[in-house]
TrEMBL record:
This is Quinone oxidoreductase-like protein 2-like protein. One of its GO terms (molecular function) is oxidoreductase activity. InterPro entries: ADH-like_C (IPR013149), ADH-like_N (IPR013154), ER (IPR020843), GroES-like_sf (IPR011032), NAD(P)-bd_dom_sf (IPR036291), Quin_OxRdtase/zeta-crystal_CS (IPR002364), Zn-ADH-like_protein (IPR051397). Gene3D superfamilies: Medium-chain alcohol dehydrogenases, catalytic domain, NAD(P)-binding Rossmann-like Domain. Signal peptide: none annotated. The lineage of its organism: Eukaryota, Fungi, Dikarya, Ascomycota, Pezizomycotina. SUPFAM superfamilies: GroES-like, NAD(P)-binding Rossmann-fold domains. One of its GO terms (cellular component) is mitochondrion.
Length: 344
């Protein structure tokens, strides 16, 4: 098979190359999948540089999220969930390749009518945002939700989920294009958070359009960037602030007096660990997401301003992602759309 194999750590994505490596043989406990599309994540960039918390022994194949077709079922499984030919998406080490082996727990069926391209970006972002907003913050109709970096991978998922649950969404993003995208995916108001006065803008929107305690600010903050401290300036009584990530590169320290004075909760979410500590929640979260998909309230967020076709475009896709030039999920079509169509 062909793969983006890492034999030694590289300086950056543009040093990656595609090589021929042996195709995995069917395994006792894993499915063999023919990959059609691979999602990119910032942690893929850290991993190729040797800077990620999970570094397999060299050599290894990069990438994690994928969507494709089952090519072989686990040879020792008596009643496998999937059959040869089923369309699945998931995540495991080695998605930047034409084939990968993956255990059943890391696979889900591609939703009806979804492309591989959209499904390849679903496995990490959608449950992170659904788990945070629905299970951790209890979002409900009438809430006002402030979504930071709203055009990013988890951000666009959060905008859609908050809207689907009947909330009003204020979306922040750093460029006009990204704010347009947040609006297209349902945000009610957009704010440029490169303007230092952005909390004032959020407060003004709430003061103008909300009643009672809500006049002071939003009920929920969804923060994948590291903006909790500033967000505390524009929250309502009883607000929940979701700590999702630190895309800006700095782990914040928060003055806890504001947490007390405004009677608010700081709520963390570590989606990847649910599979270990709270497996029953994983099924509930995915059921919630598939229900929204079936109702047409959650759609794929594959970045479409530029296409990445073929494994050779992995370096370019990762560079674009790392350069903060993209929105939604940057997906590489391992089997290009044209080839996939001609196979049908
Ligand atoms: N807690 C969890 O379980 C969990 C799960 C998945 C992801 N995460 C974390 O959530 C964060 C966002 O993930 P994602 O997949 O949405 O990433 P993404 O698609 O790359 O989006 C990140 C967004 O952050 C904003 N940003 C602000 N400062 C930035 C900077 N200095 N460099 C790059 N981007 C910056 C950018 O929006 P603007 O250009 O508009 O500012 C960008 O769109 C990451 O830190 C990730 O590790 C956490």
């Amino acid at each position: 098979m062909r793969a983006v194999q890492v034999k030694e750590y590289v300086k950056g994505p543009l040093d990656l190359t595609v090589t021929e490596v042996p195709t995995p043989t069917p395994s006792a406990d894993k499915y063999l999948i023919e990959i059609h599309s691979a999602g990119t994540n910032f942690f893929d960039i850290l991993q190729i540089q040797g800077k990620y918390q999970h570094q397999p022994p060299l050599p290894w194949v990069g990438g994690s999220e994928f969507a494709g077709i089952i090519a072989a079922v686990p040879t020792a499984a008596s009643s496998p969930r999937f059959r040869v030919g089923d369309r699945v998406f998931g995540a495991t080490q080695g998605a930047y390749a034409t084939h990968v082996l993956a255990p059943e727990a890391s696979l889900l069926p591609v939703p009806e009518g979804w492309s591989f391209e959209d499904a390849a970006g679903l496995f990490v972002t959608a449950p992170t945002s659904y788990g945070a907003l629905v299970h951790r913050a209890g979002v409900k109709a009438g809430d006002w939700v402030l979504v930071h970096a709203a055009a990013g991978g988890v951000g666009l998922a959060a905008v859609q989920i908050a809207k689907a649950k009947g909330a009003t969404v204020i979306a922040t993003a750093g460029t006009q294009r990204k704010r347009e995208i947040a609006s297209q995916f349902g945000a009610d108001y957009v704010v440029d958070y490169t303007d230092k006065a952005w909390p004032e803008q959020v407060k003004k929107l709430c003061a103008t359009h909300r009643q009672g305690n809500g006049k002071a600010g939003v009920d929920i903050v969804y923060d994948p960037v590291g903006m909790i401290e500033a967000s505390l300036k524009c929250v309502a009584w009883n607000a929940r602030l979701l700590v999702i990530g630190f895309a800006a590169g700095k782990i914040e320290k928060v003055a806890l007096n504001r947490v007390l004075l405004k009677n608010v909760s700081l709520v963390g979410l570590h989606w990847g660990m649910y599979a270990k500590h709270e497996t029953e929640a994983v099924d509930a979260v995915w059921k919630g997401i598939f229900d929204l998909v079936a109702q047409g309230k959650f759609k794929g967020t594959a970045f479409s301003d530029e296409s990445f076709n073929g494994l050779e475009t992995v370096p370019k896709a990762l560079k674009a992602l790392g350069g903060r030039e993209t929105w939604g999920k940057v997906v590489v079509n391992v089997i290009s759309n044209e080839k996939a169509k001609s196979k049908l």
